[in-house]
Specification:
6-stranded antiparallel beta sheet; 4-stranded mixed beta sheet; mainly beta; globular; 140 residues; single chain; 36% strand; Immunoglobulin-like; 1 helix
Length: 140
């Protein structure tokens, strides 16, 4: 039986190493990765989320963890969501499904600001702001 292992080992060393095509190779560094947080909060401190509707259409926002029931946000209106805990998934969607959304996220003093605009791209827009237990904020 040990000769089977020896032959298998020789076969493995005889196969040349194949390189991954550039399209699926790992990024050179993590800043090239799309799975980097767009912003961060200090997760051990209280935080708030300010949503600014710059779309010109009515939005609906809610959380998947049910901290509050779905709410509407009129065009050109700003609202602040308080007393959230991590992890939280905030869902922000247009009431008119013909529109796609784009989010611009920033933080200052544990205030997360989400500016919502209409996306001019034909692909599906953003629908979720995810604030993780580590403080990383992702949009998708």
């Amino acid at each position: 039986m040990s000769w089977h292992i020896a032959i298998a080992s020789l076969c493995l060393f005889a196969i040349p190493m194949l390189t991954l095509p550039e399209a699926i190779a790992a990024p050179a560094n993590m800043t090239d990765s799309p799975w980097q947080p767009v912003a961060r909060i200090a997760p051990t401190k209280p935080f708030q989320v300010q949503i600014i509707n710059k779309t010109g259409i009515e939005l609906e926002y809610s959380s998947t963890t049910n901290e509050f029931s779905p709410r509407r946000l009129a065009p050109s209106v700003t609202t602040t969501v308080k007393q959230l805990s991590t992890p939280v998934y905030l869902l922000i969607n247009p009431l008119d499904a013909r529109f796609n959304l784009k989010y611009t996220v920033s933080t200052r003093n544990n205030l997360v600001t989400v500016i919502v605009t209409q996306s001019s791209e034909s692909r599906t827009g953003y629908s979720t702001v995810n604030i993780q237990e580590t403080g990383g904020i992702f949009v998708y």
